[in-house]
Hints:
Chain A is of the alpha/beta class. Chain A is 35% helix and 21% strand.
Amino acid sequence: MTIEGSKQTTASGKIRLGMVGGGQGAFIGAVHRIAARLDDQYDLVAGALSSDPERAMASAADLGIAADRSYASFEEMAKAEAARPDGIEAVSIVTPNHMHAPAAKAFLNAGIHVICDKPITTTVEEARELVSLAEQSGKIFALTHNYTGYPMIRQAKAMVDQGELGDIRVVQVEYPQDWLATRAEASGSKQAEWRTDPKRSGAGGCIGDIGTHAYNLASFVTGLELDQLLADLTTFVEGRLLDDDVQILLRFKGGAKGHLWASQVAVGNENQLKLRVFGTKAGLEWVQADPNYLWFTRFGEPKQLLTRGGAGAWDEASRMSRIPGGHPEGYLEGFANIYSEIAAAIRAARTGGKAAADVTFPSVYDGLKGMQFIEAAVASSQNGNVWTKLP
Amino acid sequence: MTIEGSKQTTASGKIRLGMVGGGQGAFIGAVHRIAARLDDQYDLVAGALSSDPERAMASAADLGIAADRSYASFEEMAKAEAARPDGIEAVSIVTPNHMHAPAAKAFLNAGIHVICDKPITTTVEEARELVSLAEQSGKIFALTHNYTGYPMIRQAKAMVDQGELGDIRVVQVEYPQDWLATRAEASGSKQAEWRTDPKRSGAGGCIGDIGTHAYNLASFVTGLELDQLLADLTTFVEGRLLDDDVQILLRFKGGAKGHLWASQVAVGNENQLKLRVFGTKAGLEWVQADPNYLWFTRFGEPKQLLTRGGAGAWDEASRMSRIPGGHPEGYLEGFANIYSEIAAAIRAARTGGKAAADVTFPSVYDGLKGMQFIEAAVASSQNGNVWTKLP
Amino acid sequence: MTIEGSKQTTASGKIRLGMVGGGQGAFIGAVHRIAARLDDQYDLVAGALSSDPERAMASAADLGIAADRSYASFEEMAKAEAARPDGIEAVSIVTPNHMHAPAAKAFLNAGIHVICDKPITTTVEEARELVSLAEQSGKIFALTHNYTGYPMIRQAKAMVDQGELGDIRVVQVEYPQDWLATRAEASGSKQAEWRTDPKRSGAGGCIGDIGTHAYNLASFVTGLELDQLLADLTTFVEGRLLDDDVQILLRFKGGAKGHLWASQVAVGNENQLKLRVFGTKAGLEWVQADPNYLWFTRFGEPKQLLTRGGAGAWDEASRMSRIPGGHPEGYLEGFANIYSEIAAAIRAARTGGKAAADVTFPSVYDGLKGMQFIEAAVASSQNGNVWTKLP
Amino acid sequence: MTIEGSKQTTASGKIRLGMVGGGQGAFIGAVHRIAARLDDQYDLVAGALSSDPERAMASAADLGIAADRSYASFEEMAKAEAARPDGIEAVSIVTPNHMHAPAAKAFLNAGIHVICDKPITTTVEEARELVSLAEQSGKIFALTHNYTGYPMIRQAKAMVDQGELGDIRVVQVEYPQDWLATRAEASGSKQAEWRTDPKRSGAGGCIGDIGTHAYNLASFVTGLELDQLLADLTTFVEGRLLDDDVQILLRFKGGAKGHLWASQVAVGNENQLKLRVFGTKAGLEWVQADPNYLWFTRFGEPKQLLTRGGAGAWDEASRMSRIPGGHPEGYLEGFANIYSEIAAAIRAARTGGKAAADVTFPSVYDGLKGMQFIEAAVASSQNGNVWTKLP
């Protein structure tokens, strides 16, 4: 055990951040704010926190945002902030899905970096537009697939990259929840309402909300490109408009296969995201609810339990960690790691440079891939569960 | 905790048992013998233990079988034992798969009850013949899908039967192993040789060896009938003749869906059979490697860890158990439970009766279903992974 | 994974076994019988199964013991069996504690090997007498501290013996149960009655029933000699006559220290016996309820989870095992291992020889040590919790 | 599962905070800063971050502290800040132990609230002086026994308080680590150096560093007052000046007993703090490394696994939580909870009021108790391991 944590924090020259969405009553906005704050890299100085003007203003006051930088709309905010000498350098977009694209466009066009919640948009087409716009603008576009920020996920990826697993054969990923096992959207849950509403969520329900997380995580760790999928999307809860359970067979380029299961009706599961990767030489297993552990087993050798901060932790994990082994880090620290990686990129961009090579975070391209994944899965399912190529 | 175990053993009038296969160097034969012995219900008195005559004789001597009841072939054994006044009442068939059907026929024809290892045959046709023959003969035909003998599996089934889970929505079952991650069949492993040889195993490799176990277990606990499946069978190890990894989407009659994964290349897994069942009211989770535990979660309530012999154990579990909670029972006890259930049926049959209603064990019909499952999966996979109806 | 189990069974020339105690309604007698039967090394042919003659006879009939070898008393049995040419070679004594010594004496005097449940007697004095008598008689005296029969405990011992842990510093052992959290002895539990009755149990309650198991296990694995102890014995349940919770500080010869906790009022625990050993080079952890696992951690290296039958299992574990890794063995198999080790010794003794060097089981000396441990703990506690030397 | 987190953050009117110690190369200072920042309740505006003036200045620059508020000594800082209209309201003292008392005195005397790392001082006498001074000053004195900030620890405490466990009988608490299993203090570890140096740590090594945490946690959850203890302190690593392993028998007022084990040589353990409480009605178990879980078992009922944010979480837990169940919170969040509780008290004190009744954090009295615990344990051990009364 090293007592010293590895993560270095530099507070000077904090990044001026704005936020769209995330006002009173929202969930993920508060998470983004904590994530931005944890390593002291950002100052939240502006917001269009709610489509309801009163709530927007009250929320801004709660958060110590000056009244004149609390905006009634993201359009206004993008324009006004771009015009200020001390305007925001980056914006976090934490609205329901259907607002991601218009908001992102406004800020990219205003020359402001974008940090966007997932899934990136509600359609592939919008996602493609954002890719183009991001490329043209030269601005950073980060997507908060936060699970890629967990230290032991970074280690898992590094182990795969460096050949510890040999050639990957099988990838099993699953994300069961149970909070939509009943029709919560009909009994007043705001979170359930928009997540089960095609207008605000897009064509995918469970697959968009958590299936994309599972897909992104599997892709991140294995480095494999999904070639085709065969999906069976189901709506178990009567009256629900979108899928709440997703079974998908996976075929990766290079011959690996696998399975992705996401469910919001799996009673007894909170956020039981789990990834298993099996190669010719070794296997890995990681569970989000217990993220400080990584099981690693070489063929024919005893199972090893690697721990964040413990013996067996690689630099790739330690770099993303703040405290010694045995003192658990959690979801917020993983989320903060994404924000801090983005911060490194923004700081580098201030002087026209690039962040160090090991700085990594999900990008607009991952967002597009996520939408293509959703689109392919919905199509496969609608077409009778047939193999469907990813573009 | 009750200190007293619940299982009652009656040793008087033990059942005279023979065995086909299971000589020196075999694996599952020894397991059957321990299972038969554990509750003291059987006497092993005859055998055709090996196709190699010398090994047969030596094996019999090892096991205390009289020389004149050690036979060179099962045909001879069936004939001779049927002719003896103290001939065997039942035979255990523990050969490689391709010998199950001919041996079973010989003993059924000789009026001897059959206890057969799984899968029942190598083809659906043979399995159908055995069903007919078993029906005609009026003899008991038991199949050792031993996992159905675990006490907490009995409880799981009872909980589903009595509505504790509500309507079943999702069934996830998996059976990963890693012992065939390399080409063990080419380096002298007898167990690997016949299991990867289509002539001795049938059309299924991994799916026949462990996929059928997973399917049988899911069927047993949920009571659901599989309507159709969509399978992707893969052979990852070069040069292997049968599948070593199996991904199957499941659709049950009544609307439940699910997924079955079996693999023999999942490095880091020994015999990690796991069943999860999710209903409208509650969920269940059980893992074979830790069989004394059953997770049970009612929607909106804390997770419960039910233990064999502990508070929360039902009669259905206690009936199959010998020792107090916290003192683990294992694989052999579960296997023995199947043998003891069969013994109850054989004893009842002695006087033309039926065993008590709660006595249950896998039958020739389960054997047929297993073969139909294999056949459908192989067909689905060969036909491009399409939905394939079970008969 | 090896598919083949390692344990070899030889059924020829089974050992003729008798039993004292263990009639209908008893608990541990049935466990002994299964343990004796599992590897097919013994034939149970005689018994004095109950002090109640009718129950003795009925129990014998249940077990297939001939009526003329069902005795009304152990004295009669010892005499009669010694006189028969086919008399028993060994006897299992499974009565309440206070009957162990008189019964053992009768059989040793009759030239019959003794297998005795623990604790060996109710006083140190009686235990000393048994040691003398056993030495004089030249007969085997085995004590069923069954936990030493678990394969991974054998491995743990071997790892310590071969220096894998370096010098032992700290030994933490605990055995919490909860079945005596209320006054069960006052509400009809036979098991609770005699275990809380000084006349039948001796001076120790919890410490005799399970504390000795914990002490024996720690001694077996570490090979350390206990030098002194400091005990605090408590009776939490009002009206109870013996201790139901035990806290003991331990000092071993050579400088290792440790702690033993045993409790029968630790609500939520079934039989949660756990041993942890920490040396200069590595640490070990084992839990009886999950006995197929052994945690092993070298200083500065990742934690390893060793599994029975898996990669990392040593010969010392495999020798005591029947089935492949991932298929759990349990309490009965561990108990059976003790019986089979004893069988090896008895077989060797038939021809005046000694069993192979690796055959080991708890002996009359371990029994004496257990009684000295109880005596020292009771004395320490009564004298104000002072350090008390072991003889 | 509720998606909405429960914790409310109010950023307006942040508390002006200073820090003593915690400059470059320190460990716990960074933890305090994150904890203060997480809920956005504090602004770190002043510091005497190192006894080395250059390092103090560089550290302050790193942290965005204005150069004129980076002080060369805490005396200077206390004086200067007290004199500023915008001076700090509270100070965090995160130096080695021996500096806690002089620093705390300086700030209390200057009318500034104190947040002090544990143990509070190096002697009982100093601790008593701080109690007096804190009482006289009317200022808040908080001690960062951070484990009391974990949500499920709050729930455990509430469950005990509300009688869910009945009368407490047995309390088992342990805190094993392994980072001092070798003589790290001789090979350049700063953290090891001062922790094993009596001049900087006081009379207790392991007992002061982590034993006090274990004691504080057990006291907090059970609400029991320790009456006497019997300790055996050991130094296993040659050349070390303070204890590195601690075994303590506990007797609480009212009759409960228990055991505390803390070790820094328990190879294989990182920060494996574990608390178990057993009452007449139920038992509890909690492990710091997996803090989102709380095992709760009513006598005669199935074990329940309560999860932070999940079904079965009480308000006392939810109040201390930010994100949904299944998304783990960790050490930093628990630490932040202590800071936010203190913030509530400081805000209330601004207007001469008191925080809400459920606001709670460790105080100067807990600090005194911790020192009395250390002193009693050292005395008990030196006097031959005798029962020693707490004052």
